[in-house]
Amino acid sequence: MSRLRITGARLLDPASGRDELGSLDVEDGRIVALGREPAGVPDEVFEANGLWLAPGFVDLHTHLREPGQEYKEDIETGTRSAAAGGYTLVCCMANTDPVNDSPAVTEYIQRRARESGNVRVRVIAAATQGLRGEIMSEMAGLAAAGAVAFSDDGSVIMDAAVMRRVLEYARGIGRPVIAHCEDLNLRGAGVVHEGSHATCCGLPGSPGEAETVMVARDLELARLTGAHLHVAHVSAARSVELIREAKTAGVRVTAEVTPHHLFLTDEEIRGYDTNKKMAPPLRTARDREALRQGLADGTLDCIATDHAPHAHYEKDVEFVAAPFGVVGLETSLSIGLELVREDVLSPLALIDRMSTRPARVFGVGGGTLEPGAPADLVLVDPERSYKVEVSGLESRSKNSAFLGRELSGRALRTWVGGRIAFALDEEGSR
Amino acid sequence: MSNPETPAGSQTAAERGPERELAKGRVVLDAAGIQRATTRIAHEILESQPDVSELVVVAIVRGGEPVAKLVTARLEQLSTRTIPLGALDITLYRDDVVARGVRPMPRPTRMPFSVDGKRVVLVDDVMFTGRTIRAAMDAVLDFGRPASIQVATLVDRGHRELPIKVDFVGKNIPTARAEQVVLRKRADGELEVVVV
Amino acid sequence: MRHLLGIEEMSRDEIERVLETSEAMLEISQREIKRVPTLRGRTVINVFLESSTRTRVSFEIAAKRLSADAINVTRSGSSLSKAETLADMARNLAAMSADVLVVRDSVAGVPHMLAERVRVPVVNAGDGCHEHPTQALLDAFTLRQSLGSLEGRVVAIVGDISHSRVARSDIHCFTKLGAEVRVAAPPTMMPAGIEGMGVKPCYSMAEALPGADVIVMLRIQQERLAGALFPSVREYAGTFGLNARTLALAKPEAIVLHPGPINRGVEIASDIADAEPSRILDQVTNGVAVRMAVLYLLTGGGR
User: What per-residue confidence (pLDDT) applies to C225?
Assistant: First the structure.
């Protein structure tokens, strides 16, 4: 048994409120001790030089594209991307090919993750068969196979009656339902946020209400059914208000927000860069402010990347024709650190929103630094700056909304169960 | 200035303003000299063909315009007839490669008469390589079928690159190739020709 | 000016330059031999992925009057129907040593896409609902003929503003030239945040036309009318159509523009389309001159 001590680190553990300089010992894949001066003699010492040591990040919303769309990404490249971003656990969505609406596909994904995954993978299975929004999926079988949640993300359950039954049934199974809240009729042909930038660019827009009417609907249904509703990628100010009210009223709702919605606005669509096209779209500065406020006060529980890889040639088309989505696992931390720099979140709160809380929301484990917990750790250099470039991204697809941008702060080491899943040294080589 | 060697646009020296040019250049033809020269050109035109019934004068925009006005006025005095005067812009007929990204502004062309069967006298201020006149001939021939085309110029500075001849010249001024010959208007409104 | 993708990116000086150059080009179109050798040996490729006869013919005539070779690529005959991507098609065209690409598409952003990927000048001949810059330039040129400067003039643009690229280009162009621009449409056809473009949105003719020196009537697409954005042709014509009664709301000497093709009896009454205030046919004549000016100015750089 070799004991590794990571020493001289700023230990950040939101679960216990710990934010102090100290050391952390890892043995046999678990945290065995931590604190200012933990007892025990290490075999190996890693000098952290004041860098942050936190529980590895947990992403509740990733598209790994395997099975069926491996040309965009697969479990190996996607989890490699996750590790490079400081993530130790990702939950993958069901809009694969075939759709993950059967235990066989769930088991396939989990087996492939055991074989080739660089970080832990948890499976989100489809809420309805084929993501068609008509007949609910075999939730009991899927949960037994390992699914941690259900979602039709990639599609929308437009029929309220179907959504109601899905929520009710899922409540019985004891799993949350993740809702992609978007009224497809209100969205219409909209590809960007309906507003002055869309107007000037001549692009069809989708108003914030396309999201908020569905958030309102699903909150009502969550109240009716007592199920756990998790609202995916919140983008509109009004959605934050609705979720806040619902939480106050005792509805079992949690919510997530993406890094790009926390940082960018619809001004980005000028120039028709398809790497700024995603659903829901980037909205106004006012919406961004409300999202930041919501993340700070806990209305929005966590940051989730909605990492959505697409091949270059798929995005290299007319703006209206390009698929929606951007990758985000590798830049998420940098964006989170921007929020710390702008005093929206404290460092401890950032780790909470990226690790502790998401782990708790889905009950997937992790997110804490405590003796006995798996050694899923991330070493963060908050000052390390870099330029986001195609050549620097681990993910197979390079459709990042931040290409060409200088960002600050990245993971230098990621440990999963005590094993190094990602390492970046001083000169930048892996 | 219709000299195709002029860089960047067709802004004439007169447009650039007399102040900047005053310091440089030696005057080779002053206002009185220009009067004498244009008078002599008019005489020569009449001598070579006294019948002016089919005569039209076409000024090359822009440098040829003041010269053509003087020549035409003198022709009308001497012949006691009205002589049609047109202005031809040859910007769109130029054969020289334009500097990257900069297109000279084409000016309006005014040819309010037919050239069919006419004796056309093209008038320019400075004859140099001959390319301007070649372009002007192409343009005139696009307007119709003149009986003949002749060329009058206030100054001939030599260095021909094409087989173009001048029929009526005001003054021959030998120059070095790198020099510029400019017809300009002084602050007091008088015309003069300088070598820069 | 490397490309002409939209009026939004043009400075007032650049706009004036095009208008001034258009004067000389108009004169050429009035000669017996309507041709100058300026673009001899150059190739203009009209990539018209959205069908259009008028604009395409106008660009073709413009190219030919400058002695350029004009080639037309349309959607049905093009490789795009065989699922070649737009980006690849553009690269292929440029590789064939085209000197200028004139591009029209039914979706926004296509000329920008091409301009980023090819090394030749690109002219936007209309991209979806975004811009139609040569239309705005010929509109401004036409207004100059009647009004001289646009400084301080009031222009009312009436029609389906939300789907109109002509409206957007006109707004940019006229505001840059100093005019006050109003847009008029029923609320269902007024785009969000239009005030951000520096115009006043109006919801009736009575609100938009008083004091107007210029009225620009936009074509209403029948498909949009059929119940979706507006109940019927009859109701639209009655509330936003230009007829003798509504024309009288504007200044007595007001002039009327329309990008064409006109829907007689829908957005514009038949008699008004042919009456004295209408400059619709001048727009067409001027269109060739303006497009000649654009082709001339963009091909300035050497090969």
Answer: 61
More confident residue, C151 or C224: C151
C-chain CB neighbours of A195 within 8 Å are: 192-193
Closest CA–CA distance from residue B77 to any residue of chain C (Å)? 31
| pLDDT of A230 higher than 80 | yes
C33 contacts B142? CB cut-off 8 A: yes
Q: What is the pLDDT of residues A348-407, one digit of tens each?
A: 999 999 999 999 999 999 999 999 999 999 999 999 999 999 999 999 999 999 999 999
The residues of A annotated with a catalytic role in the active site are 306
Q: How far apart are CA A301 and CA A353, in angstroms?
A: 6
Give me the mean pLDDT over the C82-89 stretch: 76
Backbone angles phi, psi at C3, to 5 degrees: -125, 165
Nearest beta carbon to residue B100 from set C35, C38, C301: C301
Does residue B103 sit at the C interface (CB-CB below 8 Å)?
Answer: yes
**For residue B88, which residues of chain C lie inside 8 Å, CB to CB?**
none
Query: Dmax over Cα atoms in chain A, in whole Å?
Result: 66
Q: What percentage of chain A's residues is helix, strand, coil (to nearest 5)?
A: 35, 25, 40
The residue of chain B with its CA nearest to that of C66 is: B92
In this complex, the residue of C85, C87, C165 whose CB is nearest that of residue A202 is: C165
Question: How far is Cα C176 from Cα A101, in angstroms, rounded to an integer?
Answer: 57
The C-alpha atoms of residue C74 and residue C64 are separated, in whole angstroms, by 19
Average pLDDT rounded to a whole number, residues A2-16: 96
Interface test with A, best of C112, C194, C224 (most A CBs within 10 A): C112
Mutate to test the interface with C, among B10, B61, B92, B109 (most CBs of C within 10 A): B92
CB < 8 Å to C3, chain A: none
Residue A150, pLDDT > 80, answer yes
Give every CB contact of residue C76 below 8 A, 6+ residues apart in sequence.
Answer: none
- C38 to B93: CB separation less than 8 angstroms, yes or no: yes
Chain C residue with the nearest C-alpha to that of A205: C192
Beta strand residue intervals within A135-195, DSSP E? 149-151, 177-179, 192-193
- A30-35 and A18-27 as β-strands: parallel, antiparallel, unpaired? antiparallel
- Cα distance from A386 to chain C (closest Cα, Å)? 25
Nearest to C193 among A199, A203, A313 (CB): A199
What span, in angstroms and rounded, lies between the C-alpha atoms of A205 and A190? 4
Phi, psi of B47 (to 5 degrees): -60, -40
Q: Could you list the pLDDT tens digit for every one of the 196 residues in chain B?
A: 444 444 444 445 444 444 444 557 889 999 999 999 999 999 999 999 999 999 999 999 989 999 999 999 999 999 999 999 999 999 999 877 555 567 899 998 999 999 999 999 999 999 999 999 999 999 999 999 999 999 999 999 999 999 999 999 999 999 999 999 999 988 888 899 989 8
CA dist C185 and C158 (Å) reads: 6
A297 burial type by CB count under 10 A (0-12 exposed, 13-18 middle, 19+ buried): exposed
Q: How far apart are CA C157 and CA C205, in angstroms?
A: 10
Question: In chain C, what are the helix, strand and coil shares in percent, each to the nearest 5?
Answer: 45, 15, 40
The answer to whether A199 contacts C194, with C-beta atoms less than 8 Å apart, is yes
Whether complex ipTM tops 0.85: yes
With an 8 Å Cβ cutoff, are C128 and A202 in contact? yes
B159: left (phi over 0), alpha (psi -120 to 50) or beta: left
The Cα C166–Cα C156 span in angstroms is 13
Residues of C in contact with A317 (CB under 8 A): 85-87
pLDDT band, very low/low/confident/very high, at C117 (cuts 50, 70, 90): confident
- The answer to whether chain A touches chain B by having 3 or more C-beta pairs less than 8 angstroms apart is no
DSSP string covering A238-276, please? HHHHHHHHHHHTT--EEEEE-HHHHH--GGGGTT--GGG
